[in-house]
User: Fold this.
Amino acid sequence: MWILRDDTRKGWDRVMKILVCVKQVPDIERIVVGDGPNGLAALDLSDEFRLNHFDEFAVEEAVHIKETVVGVHIDVITVGPERAAEVLKRPMGMGADDGIHVRTPTDEDPGPAAVAAWLAEYARQRGYALILCGSMSEDGMHGQVGPMLAAHLKLAYATQVIDIKLGSDAFLLFIEREIEGGAREMLEVRMPVLLTLQPGINRPRYPSLSRLLRANRQKPETIPTETWGPAGASIDCVGLVAPERRRTSRVLTGSTQEKAEQLATILKEKALL
Assistant:
């Protein structure tokens, strides 16, 4: 287990501060495309939002580092409307220390440029050694907030990280990331740094009951985006269209012999046999 010592890096002072960026997303299995704003069916979605699955791996990795290194503090932050504050409870139940809600005035998704700018406004003067993000969100799937945030903060960053190991001291990291063509890249980095993590880097734990109870009692820090004003270009959703069904399916019935004969006939008709 690493123990942090006095360090001259700005704001660290015996405490390694980690910021984890998370997002509240709709449960995509319950979303119906049809008549309604932006092509969504008019449904009551008040209870159909949850933590972005990709972000769970970022939270777990931060908690793992906290369990390995003495003197680690984890903040978890989200950008979204009033309801988005609920998404902070699960990360805090997993082991994060404090939650921050950057509150937007409407339910409209401001887009990755605005989200990254607002996150940077919060993080810039707080001396985070490590910022962790999921590789993308399940709804937008832009994968841009992490790199944009790193650019705002002038931080080194790496995307699609699939493994993190501590180096010879608690501020040195050896990371492995996926690149094009199925290849992998090994990097040695020193904090401060921003990383976006791939699913599978770890196995996210279930929140503990005691921590969930604490998260229910603990009010997150809330900052209205109006405090900082407009940030970046927003994204306008022109419309949503359900995927077109282009293939039909056929279920074979009967005995094993009969189904095998039917399958053979179909394959011959398609010139596959």
